[in-house]
Amino acid sequence: MSAESVLEGLDPEQRAVAEAVKGPVCVLAGAGTGKTRAITHRIAYATLTGVVTPQRVLAVTFTTRAAGELRSRLRQLGAPGVQARTFHAAALRQLGYFWPRVVGGEPPKIVDSKIGLVADAARACRLSLGRTELRDVASEIEWAKVTQNRPEDYPAAVVKASRRPPAEIVDVARVYAMYEQLRRERNLLDFEGMLELTAAVITEHREVANQVREQYRYFVVDEFQDVNPLQKMLLDAWLGDRDDLCVVGDPNQTIYSFTGASPSHLLDFTREHPDAKVVRLVRDYRSTPQVVRLANGVIGQARGARHKLELVAQRENGPEPVFNEYDDEVAEADDAARRARKLIEEGVPAREIAILYRINAQSETYESALAAVGVPYVLRGAERFFERPEVREAVVRLRGAARAGADAETDGMGLIQTVRHVLSGAGFSDRPPEGAGAARARWESLAALAQLAEDMAADDPRAGLPEFVAELEERAAAQHAPPLEGVTLASLHAAKGLEWDAVFLVGLAEGTLPIVYAKTSEQIEEERRLLYVGVTRARVHLNLSWALARSPGGTQARRPSRFLDGLTGKTTTHTPARVDRSKRRPAKGPQPCRVCGRPLTAAVERKLGRCEDCPSELNEELLLALRDWRAGVSAEQKVPAYVVFTDATLQAIAEHAPESMEELARIPGVGRVKLDRYGDAVLGLCGH
To answer: Which site in 77, 166, 209, 455 is 20 to 30 Å from 144, CA atoms measured?
Structure first.
């Protein structure tokens, strides 16, 4: 591929990015404007014109999936030697290489999850924390570390940042201090410490700095609005006094400041680099003009924002966004499921439909609604695709077939037919099995691999089975799963970076979006940007909805999100009558909390029988035993764990410790089928 051919097909702004191959460059890229295309073509153009060799380039992303996508695109553009890594992967590689030289001795073990160590620290501080609290305290420690606040600095930092700590400030500070003490005593290193130590090694050892800066001379950082102070410190150590740095980001999509990310690094880039070239990408190739108009309306009302990007639609017209108001959340979920099924019947693939919500606890109602109308769904983040037993088996079969020369043995079949032939040995067929159980889930996993082969063959007709297996292995390393045939259920945070033909934005009521604990103007504006991210995930169809009450029969006191003010016009429809009441799941009046008596409206609270904040008599040993049992059943039946019982149901069982089938049946989430299938085993674990 020639240098000039790399520039073909780019729009004027994308071409300006690609040709800006030297010095500091800041790319302000709106949603759907082709930022990945622009930066990969820039890297390829720089290498093909001799500005830099591929091995001297380091492209930094925030997810292994994004890094894998960058490497794949760069290979296609003739720049296969470029290093594309996350901050953590790059730091781990460098630290592992230099440790024997500058430190010596046994290197520390990397902590994959903080929760175990946080639990030990809490016990040492004589604090009793549940698993949810442990997870939240671990996240709080991560925030403190990435913002460079030590345990003794934490209380003042929390007050200054207007944070809502998961426990008493003094208790979090004590656990944080003990966590650090235990980590050092056990020779452990967490991800934040890894970044900090790598930056220190580079800064304090001139020979290390010289070698790193000789290796990497050319930097590109994606999603720069999400960089935290610790990552910025490492980036500065990599750069030294050089300025061959290209940063890419969208200030309108800053939604991770609660983790320590700061958009100031992007917004103030020209202050730090006064001679930087700034390019704005605003041509939206993803969404219809109707979706783009609404996105601009949402972000146009933002207060105090700098560098707001107003998108310019490039696609043909599509349907107007639909706004719906419902009596309660059950009606809202049922109608979303019905509309999703209608889209599928009209030809929209299920994998091209998403239902997005503010918090994960909202998913349960939509899982039930989709199941009731026979629509398959995928919970984003619930299970890693390449860790599924059927996928592991299929990859082994494909790898073996590639080594055995299956392409030659199936002469004339082509990649698509070859892959299907191999997958048939794992149980794949052209027609899916009836029903929605484990057999259907297995078939859908194999079908996703078959579809991936079709996509690869379309991109490169010369590709064979060895290339396909190499693609699978790279995707597995990056956890870059192919799309599964099911409606995606995901939080708005988890949806960032993704897109679908049809998107349902649900629960858009005050108290949910913006979330009730967003108090400061900065927090409110971040909630607005979260809605903007949701809107810009949609290519064509966009449904926005809210419910006036949480549960059927509840007081209808809610109002639509303030972020929709002036945007719904006359298009809002009050639609409870559209729901087929005969097919809805039985609804009950608000259940009282067994501790304080308050009406319970959240699905998780109804399962527990109490408010989440009320004290419980949780049998932690029983809960652990139930989870171990569920993991075994999940593996044996080859279904996701939540299909057996959800976490909330297991916690409710551990709190109630039922002594009979009748008591077990009274726990929400334990229906007749699950009672017959699992009742004896559960009661056995409960000691009865």
So the answer is: 209
DSSP annotation string for 41-105? HHHHHHHHTTSS-GGGEEEEESSHHHHHHHHHHHHHTT-TT-EEEEHHHHHHHHHHHHHHHHT-S
> Which pTM does this prediction carry?
0.71
Q: Is the separation of the CB atoms in 492 and 356 below 8 Å?
A: yes
Sign, CA dihedral 339-341-346-351, equals positive
Give the whole-angstrom CA distance, residue 402 versus residue 28.
Answer: 43
Q: What is the pLDDT of residues 361-406, one digit of tens each?
A: 788 888 888 888 888 888 775 556 777 788 888 888 888 888 877 5
- What are the pLDDT digits (tens) for 625-654? 888 888 888 778 776 676 788 877 888 888
Tell me which long-range contacts 90-99 makes (C-beta under 8 A, separation of at least 24).
Answer: 90/58, 90/60, 91/194, 91/195, 91/198, 91/234, 92/194, 94/198, 94/201, 94/202, 94/212, 95/194, 95/197, 95/198, 95/201, 98/201, 98/205, 98/208
Instruction: Report the alpha-carbon distance of residue 469 to residue 464 in Å, rounded.
Output: 9
d(CA 57, CA 453): 30
